[in-house]
Amino acid sequence: MLNRTKTIIYSSSLRENSMKSYINVSHFPLGVTPVHITYRLAGSIPMEEKRRIAQRRAEQVAALRHKLRGQPEWLSTEVYTQEMQRISGEVESEIERLLHRWDSGPMHLKCPTISSVIVVSWRFLHDYEEIKLYAVCVMSNHVHVILSAPTGSEKVCLSRIMNRHKRYTACACNLILDTTGQAFWAPNYFDRTIRNGKFFTAMWYVLNNPVKARMVDRWEDWHGTYVNPAYLSHFVENEERKLRA
Description:
alpha+beta, Alpha-Beta Plaits, 2 domains, 8 helices, disordered N terminus, disordered C terminus
C-alpha cells in the first residue's frame, strides 16, 4: 500500500497546512546551505508546557519590539532579525528538552515500520531531486533531518516540502496504526541554517541522538537513522584501525 499511495500523494497539488501552532516560527526558503530541521508528533508535549513556552516567547518578542521602538529602521531590522533567531533557538532547545524528558505522550515513531515510512519519504524526495538529503534520525516522538535545496536549484519552498512530507507520512502511518483521521504530526517545525564550518558537528549531533538517549550503544544500530552514502565514511569507524587497536 505504501508504494501504491506514494505517487498519488506526492504528485498531487497540496495546500499549505492551515493549522496554527501555539508557537509561531518564521521560516525561510531552503537554499544550498544545509538546514537542520526538527519536527514532532502531535500530543508529544503537554498543552500546559506549550502554553508556558508560547507565553514566554510572546513576552520576549513584546520586550524586543518595545526596546527597538524609535530606532532607525536599518538598525532595528538587523537587531530584530538577530534577536528573533535567538528567541526561536531558545524555544527549539526547550521543546527538544521536553521531548527527551516527557515519555507519557505518543511514541509511534519507535516502531521500525513507522520510522521506515519517514525515512523512505525523505529518500523519495531526494531521489526525485526535490531536495538534497544528508541525514535523518527518527526518534520515538520527533524527527531530525538535515537537507538543502537540490543541486542546480538556488531556493526551494521549505514549507511546501514539509507539508508534502507530513501529509504523506501522516496518511501512511495512520493507516498502519488504524487511526485514520487523527492528527499525527504537530503543525509546525523548527529549521536552523547550519553555520559555515559546523556541518559535520550538526550531522554528528543528529546521528548521535539515539546514543545520547541511551537507546543504542552505536548510532549505526538505530533503525530510524539514514545517512547519505556520500558522507557515511565520515561517521563510520575504520574497521581495520579498530582491529589493530
